UniProtKB/TrEMBL annotation:
It is found in: Nucleus speckle. It comes from Peucedramus taeniatus (Olive warbler). GO terms for cellular component: nuclear speck; post-mRNA release spliceosomal complex; precatalytic spliceosome; Prp19 complex; U2-type catalytic step 2 spliceosome. Coiled coil: none annotated. Its main location: nucleus. Involved in pre-mRNA splicing process. As a component of the minor spliceosome, involved in the splicing of U12-type introns in pre-mRNAs. One of its GO terms (biological process) is spliceosomal complex assembly. This is Crooked neck-like protein 1. It comes from the Eukaryota. Pfam families: HAT_Syf1_CNRKL1_C. InterPro entries: HAT, HAT_Syf1_CNRKL1_C, Syf1-like, TPR-like_helical_dom_sf. The keyword Repeat applies. Residues 66-361, 387-533 form the Pre-mRNA-splicing factor Syf1/CRNKL1-like C-terminal HAT-repeats domain. Keywords: mRNA processing, mRNA splicing, Nucleus, Phosphoprotein, Repeat, Spliceosome.
Length: 681
C-alpha cells in the first residue's frame, strides 16, 4: 500500500518518457545476421524460404500490387526470367488496369533484351488501355531506339486513330521532322487541324494555338506562301464569331517578318474593328509598337486616337448618363473621324435621355443636342435639313408642360434665320411662347424683331410679355424706352404710369428712377417734382430725399438753392420719426456737404448744431433658446433736436457736467502746488 499519496516533487511528462525511450533505442531490433551461402543445397533452401514468404504475402492480400512487383523483381535478380514473367502474368490477371505493373513488366523484358516479348507486352498494353499515353510514348521510343522507324511510325498511326491529346500529335510531328520528313509532318498537321476543327464545331471552343503552330512550322521551313495560307484559312475558319487576338498578332508578326507592312496594318485594323475592346489589349499594344517602328506620324496619331476611343467607350458603357464623358468622346471623334462616325456617336449619346423629368438633370444633356445641331450646320457642311431636324427632334423630346429650355428655341430660330427662313423662325418662337412662356423667350423674340425693325410686332410682343409678367420692371422700362426712341413720348409716359400702378413689382426703385430720368430728359421739371412727391408718399427712404435735393440743385433755376435747402429741411423733419438713425445721419452729412459748397456761415453753423453726437453703448444679448449670451458694444447717435425735446436727456447732460467739475476739484485738492504754479503763471 502507498502511504504517501501526495504528488512527487519532480513530475515526469509523456514527452520525457518518449525522448528517453528514443535515446536508449529500446524498440530497435538488431539486424538479422548475414548469411553466407556456400553450396547449392543452401541456395535452394534460401530460394524456397523466400518464395514461401512472397507467396504467403500474396495469399494474405492479392490486391497489393507492390507485393507482386517485389516478388517478380526478386526472381529477376536471380535471372529467373521465366518465373518473373509468370508472376507478372498472374498479377495482370488480378489487376490488368494497373499502369505500373505493365511498365515494370515491359521494362524487365527490355532490360533483358527480350525485344519481341517487350513488343508483345506493349501491344497488349495499348490494346487493353489505349488512353494511357505513357504506354504509347514508351512503345514508340523503344522502336525508335531500335532503329525501327517504320515500326515506330506504324505505332504512331495506330495512336492517332484514337484522336489523342495535342502533345501526342506534336510528338508524331517532331518524330517525322527528326528524320527530315517535312511532307509527312505537313500531312500530320493537316490531319490534326481538321480534327481540331471538328472538335471546335462540336464543343464551340476555339483553339487558335494549333493553327499558329502549323503556320510557324511552315515558316520555319521557309514555306512562306504555305504559312500565309494557313493563317488565312484560320481567319476564315474562326470568322467573326470566335475571333482571337493571338491569331491576328501572330499573323501580323509573320507579315512583318516578310516586310509586308501594309498587310500588317490592314490585319491590325481589321482585328481592332471587330474584336471587343476589352479582349484586344495585347493586339492594341502590338499595333502601337509596330506603328512606332514602321509607321508615320499619322499612323501613330491614329493609334493614340484609338486608345482614347477605347477609354471613352469603357466610360460611357459603365455609365451611359455620364454626359461629360460623352462630350470628351465627341470632341475626339469630331477631330479625327468622318461625318458618319460622328453622327453615330451623337445618336448614341442623345439616346441616353435623363430618367427623371427635372430640369437640373437635363442641363448637361441638352448641350448634346446643341452641339449635334451646330456640328451638322458648321462642321459636316450638310444641308440645312439635317440640323433643322436635330432641333425639331430635341424640341419634341422636351417635356414643355414641366420645363423647357429657352436657349433651344432661340438657337432654332436663329438657325432658321441663317437659312433665310424667317416665317419658320417666327413660328418657332410663337410656338414657344404659346407652349411655355418665359422671360428669356420674350426677350429673344423682341430682340429679333427689333433687329428686323418690325416695331409694331415689338409692341404686340411687349404687350403679351407684360400680360405674362406684369411685375417685371425691366420689361416696362424697355417698352417705354422703345417708345421714346420711336418719338412717341405720350405712349412712353403712359407705359410708365401703368407700370408704377402695378400692385407687385420686382424692382420698383429701378422703375421709378427710370421714370424720373425720362421726365428729366424731357425737361419736364414740374412733372419730375410731382413724381418725387408721389414716390415720397410711398416711401420715406433717405436716398429719395437726397435725390430730390440734388435734382432741385441741378434744375438750373434761380431759386434752386432755397428749393434745395427747403427739401433738406422737410427731409430732416420727416426723418425725426425714423428708427434708422444712420439714414438720418446720411441725410445730415449730405446737407452739410451742400452747405459747405453753397451755404453761408450762418447756415453752416446751423447744420453743425444739427449734427448728432456719437456715443458708445452696451446692450444685452440673448441666444436663440432665450439664455443670456453676454453683452455687446454698439454706437448710437444723439441728436440735439431730440435732446431739447426730452428733459431726461437734458438732466443727464447736466449730471455729466457736474461730475466733470467734481473730478477737476478733487484733482486740484490732491496737487495744490500745481494750482499755485498755474496762478503765478
Amino acid at each position: 500500500q502507498v502511504k504517501n499519496k501526495a504528488p512527487a516533487e519532480v513530475q515526469i511528462t509523456a514527452e520525457q518518457l518518449l525522448r528517453e525511450a528514443k535515446e536508449r533505442e529500446l524498440e530497435l531490433l538488431p539486424p538479422p545476421p548475414q548469411q553466407k551461402i556456400t553450396d547449392v543445397e543452401e541456395l535452394n533452401d534460401y530460394k524456397l524460404r523466400k518464395r514461401k514468404t512472397f507467396e504467403d504475402n500474396i495469399r494474405k492480400n492479392r490486391t497489393v500490387i507492390s507485393n507482386w512487383i517485389k516478388y517478380a523483381q526478386w526472381e529477376e535478380s536471380l535471372k529467373e526470367i521465366q518465373r518473373a514473367r509468370s508472376i507478372y502474368e498472374r498479377a495482370l490477371d488480378v489487376d490488368y488496369r494497373n499502369i505500373t505493373l505493365w511498365l515494370k513488366y515491359a521494362e524487365m523484358e527490355m532490360k533483358n533484351r527480350q525485344v519481341n516479348h517487350a513488343r508483345n507486352i506493349w501491344d497488349r498494353a495499348i490494346t487493353t488501355l489505349p488512353r494511357v499515353n505513357q504506354f504509347w510514348y514508351k512503345y514508340t521510343y523503344m522502336e525508335e531506339m531500335l532503329g525501327n522507324v517504320a515500326g515506330s511510325r506504324q505505332v504512331f498511326e495506330r495512336w492517332m486513330e484514337w484522336q489523342p491529346e495535342e502533345q501526342a500529335w506534336h510528338s508524331y510531328i517532331n518524330f517525322e521532322l527528326r528524320y527530315k520528313e517535312v511532307d509527312r509532318a505537313r500531312s500530320i498537321y493537316e490531319r490534326y487541324i481538321l480534327f481540331r476543327a471538328l472538335a471546335v464545331l462540336v464543343l464551340v471552343h476555339p483553339d487558335v494555338k494549333n493553327w499558329i503552330k502549323y503556320a510557324r512550322f511552315e515558316e520555319k521551313h521557309s514555306y512562306f506562301a504555305h504559312a500565309r495560307k494557313v493563317y488565312e484559312r484560320a481567319v476564315e475558319f474562326f470568322g467573326e464569331e470566335h475571333m482571337d487576338e493571338h491569331l491576328y498578332v501572330a499573323f501580323a508578326k509573320f507579315e512583318e517578318n516578310q516586310k509586308e507592312f501594309e498587310r500588317v496594318r490592314v490585319i491590325y485594323k481589321y482585328a481592332l474593328d471587330r474584336i471587343p475592346k476589352q479582349d484586344a489589349q495585347n493586339l492594341f499594344k502590338n499595333y502601337t509598337i509596330f506603328e512606332k517602328k514602321f509607321g508615320d506620324r499619322r499612323g501613330i496619331e491614329d493609334i493614340i486616337v484609338s486608345k482614347r476611343r477605347f477609354q471613352y467607350e469603357e466610360e460611357v458603357k459603365a455609365n451611359p448618363h455620364n454626359y461629360d464623358a460623352w462630350f470628351d468622346y465627341l470632341r475626339l471623334v469630331e477631330s479625327d473621324m468622318d461625318a458618319e462616325t460622328v453622327r453615330e456617336v451623337y445618336e448614341r449619346a442623345i439616346a441616353n435621355v435623363p430618367p427623371i423629368q427635372e430640369k437640373r438633370h437635363w442641363k448637361r444633356y441638352i448641350y448634346l443636342w446643341i452641339n449635334y445641331a451646330l456640328y451638322e450646320e458648321l462642321e459636316a457642311k450638310a444641308s440645312g435639313d439635317n440640323s433643322g431636324q436635330v432641333y425639331q427632334a430635341c424640341l419634341e423630346l422636351l417635356p414643355h408642360k414641366k420645363f423647357t429650355f429657352a436657349k433651344m428655341w432661340l438657337l432654332y430660330a436663329q438657325f432658321e434665320i441663317r437659312q433665310k427662313n424667317l416665317p419658320l423662325a417666327r413660328r418657332a418662337l410663337g410656338t414657344s411662347i404659346g407652349k411655355c412662356p418665359k422671360n428669356k423667350l420674350f426677350k429673344g423674340y423682341i430682340e429679333l424683331e427689333l433687329q428686323l425693325r418690325e416695331f409694331d410686332r415689338c409692341r404686340k410682343l411687349y404687350e403679351k410679355f407684360l400680360e405674362f409678367a406684369p411685375e417685371n420692371c425691366t420689361s416696362w422700362i424697355k417698352f417705354a424706352e422703345l417708345e421714346t426712341i420711336l418719338g412717341d413720348i405720350d405712349r412712353a409716359r403712359a407705359i410708365y404710369e401703368l407700370a408704377i400702378g402695378q400692385p407687385r413689382l420686382d424692382m420698383p426703385e429701378v422703375l421709378w428712377k427710370s421714370y424720373i430720368d425720362f421726365e428729366i430728359e424731357q425737361e419736364e421739371y414740374e412733372k419730375t417734382r410731382n413724381l418725387y412727391r408721389r414716390l415720397l408718399q410711398r416711401t420715406q427712404h433717405v436716398k429719395v430725399w437726397i435725390s430730390l435735393a440734388q435734382f432741385e440743385l441741378s434744375a438750373g433755376q434761380e431759386e434752386r438753392l432755397p428749393r434745395c435747402r427747403q427739401i433738406y429741411e422737410e427731409a430732416n423733419k420727416a426723418m425725426r420719426s425714423c428708427e434708422e438713425k444712420e439714414e438720418r445721419v446720411m441725410l445730415l452729412e449730405s446737407w452739410r456737404s451742400f452747405e459747405d459748397e453753397f451755404g453761408t456761415d450762418a447756415t453752416k453753423e446751423r447744420i453743425d448744431k444739427l449734427m448728432p453726437e456719437k456715443i458708445k453703448k452696451r446692450r444685452k444679448l440673448q441666444a436663440e433658446d432665450g439664455s443670456d449670451a453676454g453683452w455687446e458694444e454698439y454706437y448710437d447717435y444723439i441728436f440735439p433736436e431730440d435732446t431739447a425735446n426730452q428733459p431726461n436727456l437734458k438732466l443727464l447732460a447736466m449730471a455729466k457736467l457736474w461730475k466733470k467739475q467734481q473730478q477737476e476739484s478733487e484733482a486740484a485738492a490732491m496737487d495744490p502746488d500745481k494750482d499755485i504754479d498755474e496762478s503765478q503763471t
